[in-house]
Amino acid sequence: MDTPQTTLIRPATIKAAINLFAIFVALYFSELASFSLSIDEEVAAFRTDASIWIAQGRWGAYLVETFLIPHPVMPFLPPAVFGVGCVTAYLLVMDAIGKHELSIAEYACFTIFCAFPTWFFLVEFYSNIGAVGIGLAAATLAVWLISKKDPPVASSRFLAAIAAGGFAISIYQSFVPAILVLGIAFSVLQTRVSTKMSLPKHLIRVAVLLAGSAVFYVVGNAIFKSFTSQRSEYFESLFQPAFLFQHPIVVIGRILEAVRGAFGLDHDTYGVVLWTIPVLLIFGGWTLLKESPRANLPLLAIALVSLTVPFGVHFLAAGSMPVRSLIGLPIAVWLFVYLALTSRNARIRTISAILLGVAAFQILMIQNYRQASSSLVDKHDTLVAAAIYDRLTMTEGYDARRTYALSVFGGLPFATNYPRPPSSTVGYSFFEWDGGNPWRIAYYMRLLGYSNLNGSTDQQADQTIVRLSTMPVWPAPGSVEIEGDVALIRLGDQPSVANQQALARAVNH
Q: Is 192 in the same domain as 81?
């Protein structure tokens, strides 16, 4: 008899892995075949010390960047690693429910598993996505290891599961709810096909796994943080648990808005209304209610909980978390879509297959909208960088042997008719982000080969802010000047927050 381990290396499994990766390539072809930088990539490209991840409590990401992908800002490889992680995770899920040769429906459902649009908000960051793919595989492996149908689970397997789960969390803390969603999905699907499956016992195993993984992560986090004194103000600012008690109505309202957007029920989040998803969720829930061998209502209730689990962290973050944090949501949505497409009711299967086809088309459209925005803003920024540097070289006082600090006033917005989701950096220019951040602009221009540029210090900004505020706005003549080793550039009318602070200091001085 085959053991769970041997089922993973069958010829049928290898064939399935190749087919699944081909589906991934088709869905992410524009991402795999291009190299468009997002905001923050300009800094990551120059990073030589990955300990910034430790400061964010993501020591697993630190290990991946240090020992596996030391220069993650590169084309093809990071999203390809993510694809391998998705394929591995999906095969583990299929193995857990005894599916060693995948049907057309199971291949089709992989579309949701690996390309539900919340993933796109992570894929836009080369520095994140490779590690997240590894984390997804590790999280799924953790649940797979405890999901043997014949208990008891060996202690060595359980310890390995805890280590895998803890490592996944160390890559991205959002894997905490994702592991719970995976555990629920495994439990629901195994109970659906087997009357011998003990649902309460399996859920208890998942709870113990999650607790053990959290402890493993916390211990590892304490060890890694003992080697660095760095802190992440951005990461720390996300968590505001006191806000929930002070403004509970506001938090609940924000969460409901986040739920509405994440499920594709408004146009702003993805640029497309995913009207097919709610219908597929209903069909999946109906299938579970009517076709499970037992405990229909409790099973449906548990499955419905999986749709809410990814938003649990929102309660600790004043109701607002980036869309990219919803790692568990694609898995929860996939569960219901899979139930609908494998229903015993032929009518539900047929309608669900049509709806999934429409959803896949919409997902491709969302992906291509994002790629169009990225491509156009990339061309815009390349041309602006060249124009600014050309103007700089023609400005009185320029010396090619000197390095200049950029002191920038305002930002230069990029206007496009393509969607620019508010929780994403796609379609936003390096010359407009943060209202015109001189360090981002300098790093970006240095990536393009303009190597004698740096950002300005606070002192340099204070010394030039008054003059900057009176200069003409780019591209008017006089919008670029040189004062010693500082290049002054006025990109916009509106001062950034840093500009306002510098102006305030200049007035007080």
A: yes
Between strands 453-455 and 480-483, the pairing is: unpaired
433 with 298, same domain? no
Radius of gyration of the chain (CA): 25
- CB 243 within 8 Å of CB 320: no
Phi, psi of 235 (to 5 degrees): -65, -40
Q: Read out DSSP for 225-275?
A: HTT-----HHHHHH--HHHHHH-HHHHHHHHHHHHHHHTT-SHHHHSS--T
Q: What is the count of structural domains for the chain?
A: 2
Write out the two tokens for 127: 């520095």
Q: Residue 355: inside a domain, yes or no?
A: no
pLDDT digits (tens, 9 = 90+) for 134-192: 999 999 999 999 986 555 567 889 999 999 999 999 999 999 999 999 999 999 998 88
Cα–Cα distance measured from residue 406 to residue 437, given in angstroms and rounded to the nearest whole number: 9
Q: Per the structure block, which two tokens stand in for 44? A: 């990551």
Read off the pLDDT of residues 196-240 as tens digits, 9 standing for 90 and up: 667 788 899 999 999 999 999 999 999 999 988 777 666 666 788
> In this structure, are residues 53 and 59 in contact, taking their beta carbons and an 8 Å threshold?
yes
Identify the CA nearest to 60 among candidates 123, 135, 139, 127.
135
Q: Is the dihedral of CA 447, 448, 453, 456 positive or negative?
A: negative
Tokens describing residue 162:
């805890």
**DSSP element (H, E) containing 436:** none
DSSP state of 76: S
pTM of the model: 0.93
The H or E element spanning position 453 is: strand 453-455
* Residues 144, 22 share a domain: yes
Nearest residue to 62 via CA among 119, 163, 126, 131 = 131
CB atoms within 10 A of CB 315: 17
Closest residue by Cα to residue 366 from 121, 148, 134: 121
- CA angle, 472 then 478 then 479, to 5°: 55
Write the CA distances from 509 to 178, 408, 506, integer angstroms.
52, 20, 5
Structural domain that includes position 440: 378-508
What's the token pair of residue 271?
């640029």
- The helix/strand/coil state of 143 is helix
Residue 91 domain flag: yes
Contacts of 144 (CB under 8 A, 6+ apart): 4, 92, 93, 95, 96, 186
From CA 258, how far away is CA 252, in angstroms rounded?
10
Please name the residue that has the structure tokens 């620019």: 420
Residue 242: both structure tokens together: 């006191």
Q: Are 216 and 162 in contact (CB under 8 A)?
A: yes
Q: What is the largest CA-CA distance in the chain?
A: 83
